[in-house]
Write a structure and sequence with these properties.
This protein is α+β, with helices and mostly antiparallel strands. 36% of the residues lie in helices and 34% in strands. It is built from six helices and six strands, in the order H-H-E-H-H-E-H-E-E-E-E-H. A six-stranded antiparallel sheet has the order 1-2-6-5-4-3, sandwiched between helices. 30% of the residues are buried.
Length: 158
């Protein structure tokens, strides 16, 4: 699960400022159902990085807007079902899916006018917790591809 989280966090960090995000709506509707939620600005997230050692990451953070993290108790799958409906209704495209030992992670994007405007990461594991992470962004597919290809993270399949 740690490897999945690291990979998806790297994908997430490779993103970036939309107006009213679709995930913002899901966040507002379901905030009270979550066991933990936090809304974090990109400027605060960037304060934890070293400009010298994290240049690519800092460029992404500078282009970013808000980050939203929500953790749910998903024993009855209600939140998963709500998110599936939300994903279909808002036409989020699946960019990546990873499964490992009962854990699952998915990376979704929302495109508008040839830009990736939102990125949402969904993860869950055997312990019936569901984690959703949303990011407002405004990058092109080429920029995303360049960020991923310049990353020093190695993905290995066991």
């Amino acid at each position: 699960m740690t490897r999945l989280a690291t990979i998806l966090f790297a994908f997430f960090i490779t993103t970036v400022a939309a107006q009213e995000a679709q995930f913002e709506k899901f966040y507002k509707i379901n905030k009270e159902k979550s066991t933990f939620s936090i809304n974090l600005s990109a400027s605060l997230a960037g304060s934890f990085l070293d400009d010298e050692n994290d240049g690519d990451l800092m460029n992404i953070i500078k282009k970013s807007s808000d980050f939203k993290l929500m953790i749910f108790d998903n024993q009855d799958n209600n939140i998963s079902n709500d998110f599936k409906k939300f994903r279909r209704k808002n036409k989020l495209k699946t960019l990546a899916r990873v499964k490992d030992n009962g854990s699952k992670a998915e990376l979704f994007i929302l495109e508008k006018n040839n830009y990736i405007r939102e990125i949402v990461i969904r993860t869950n594991s055997n312990n019936d917790k569901l984690v959703l992470f949303g990011l407002k962004t405004k990058i092109t597919h080429d920029e995303l591809a360049a960020m991923i290809s310049s990353s020093d993270i190695n993905v290995s399949l066991d």
